[in-house]
Amino acid sequence: MNILHVTFDMRIGGTEMVIKNLIEGNTDPSKHMSIFCIESPLGPWGEQLKKKGVPISTKARTPGFDVSIITAIRKHIKHHKIDVVHCHQYTPWVYGTMAALFTSAKVVFTEHGRFYPDSTTWKRKLVNPLLSRCTHAVTAISDATKQAVAKFEHIPINKIQTIYNGIKPLSAVTTKTTALRTELTLPPEANVIGTVARLDPIKNHVMLLRAFSIICERIPQTYLVIVGDGEMRQTLELLTEELNIGNFVRFVGYKTNPTDYINLFDVFVLSSLSEGTSMTLLEAMSLSKPCVVTDAGGNPEIVKHKVSGMVVENDNADAFANAIVALLEDPQQQAIMATQARQIFDEKFDVKCMNAAYRELYENISAS
Known about the structure:
Glycosyltransferase_grp1, transferase, seven-stranded parallel β-sheet, glycosyltransferase activity, Rossmann fold, Glyco_trans_1, Glyco_trans_4-like_N
């Protein structure tokens, strides 16, 4: 089978990681899979795959509906004798489905996440049922995302399959983690909680900082490490001063490889208002970290409450703080949850699980 992935670009992100993992899951990444990007620049992961010989086409779309994108994708389908067009996200789905019309290629649409608050438009209400009829399989990265796609994209729920994101398990070097602790001036005996997420309103770092101020009052020797950058950084830094917790918070910015930072955490936290399947949450679980998360989107499907971590009410600083304190005050429970987190990761969220699920999907629709 020849598979074409249609996406926005191949910058560093969750959707792009899924595509990269699917391609690298092949015995030879240069064979059978290719990519078409509807935006430019291509992005670092795209450049990496290109060097490995993966066929990648890029055509930056113009504002509005760009018919030339359809023509370009169709040309790619015919030239590479594509059997399955796998469209990632909504706009690539529109272009990819229309390009595949009147060809032998089958279409897969994957929804990777939803905006918050979620919504729909009258155009989608009219168009999506028609697109759905021309689509051979629809997947979502969590059951919560599946429900949202059915509700807001007007696609029959029995046509949507949940396939969780999968990643390669991380491997940390203890000496690097120790050096990092020194670099961040974290006392040897201090508790460290942390998160990895872009500094965007949807990640709700404001609630996280308010919860952390409560934690500081109850367990003074606790530090918060925030990995990521974005539009909220200045607002969040000002809030730490307002809450008088600035000395205990470390903003370290965006890191291409956050492995050693995650390994530094006693507890990984995710305060998002909305999530599909968080890649950084999976990374933390692969490093055997107990997690405290909000009950947003796919979070409760990934973290089993009181088994591999704690799931609390969305946007509730008191509840979030209480859950973290409970773990920090019970090292034995931390250790049990750490073991469970890795076990659940191995069973459900290893990249091999995701790759196998998509291979089966491609084979089934190709045979139909």
